[in-house]
Amino acid sequence: MSKVVIITGASRGLGARLVQYFSDAQFSVVVNYNKNKTKAEEIAQRLMENGREVKAIKADVSKPCEVNAMIDMVLSSWGRIDVLINNAGMVNDNLLIKTSDNSWQEIITTNLSGTFICIQAVAEVMSKQCDGHIINISSISGIRGQKGQSAYAASKAGILGLTMSAAKELGEYNVRVNAVLPGYLLTDMGASAVKAKEQAKKMSVLHKLSSLDETASFIVNLSQMTGISGQVFSLDSRVCGWRTDFPIR
User: Fold this and answer.
1) Helix, strand, coil percentages in the chain from 3-state DSSP, rounded to 5
2) Which CATH homologous superfamily contains domain 4-234?
3) Which residues form the Ketoreductase domain (predicted)?
4) 2-26 per-position pLDDT tens digit
5) N or C: where does the chain have the smaller number of CB atoms within 10 Å of the terminal CB?
6) Tell me: the pLDDT tens digits for 145-166?
7) Catalytic annotation on 152?
8) Which of 21, 33, 152, 184 is catalytic?
9) Which residues contact residue 22 at a Cβ distance below 8 angstroms, ignoring those fewer than 6 apart?
């Protein structure tokens, strides 16, 4: 029986690429989406035509009732959940003093609360299985901050703390929890932000942007590792000054 992965925010960008890579690795894949039904179903249909097990399921990750309904659908179809990729997220750049309450709440609710809600929803399932891997997609902005990204940076920093705490709580059930910082990716959104793209390339010690394919391949490989948890993997070659020698208390 193939392993089952849920990928949130999978109708485009990194999420869509992860669907392809997990499917190629013989996983049964849930293409989670919120608004882009057409794109999500196109991705699922294309893979199903090639004999893959794929389902497109709508669920707003910020709403527990919708996430729980998605989990029930997955269990009804496949009986287990082996991997959760918390990829759903949004960004709406603005200076701190110009960020509205609504914008702040929307970003924090989607990026951080959505990740928490999804972890909480699969934690019991994976704990009963005594096996599972949760991978949270964070950002270098969550480590060093970024002008115009106070809300986004706060949400991504929160994901790192959530990752560490969840890893400690779920480790006794053999459930691994890790975070990945993908770097600047040439998704539709990333490619269109010309100024930000050039700045990211300039800050890279390799003068390169991150690769969607390398990132997806790394995440698939990480998901199948059984002895790693509570870690943050940076795939971003921009110098961030993040120390890795903090004492563990």
Assistant:
1) 50, 15, 35
2) NAD(P)-binding Rossmann-like Domain (3.40.50.720)
3) 3-197
4) 999 999 999 999 999 999 999 999 9
5) C
6) 677 678 899 999 999 999 999 9
7) yes
8) 152
9) 5, 7, 29, 83, 220, 223
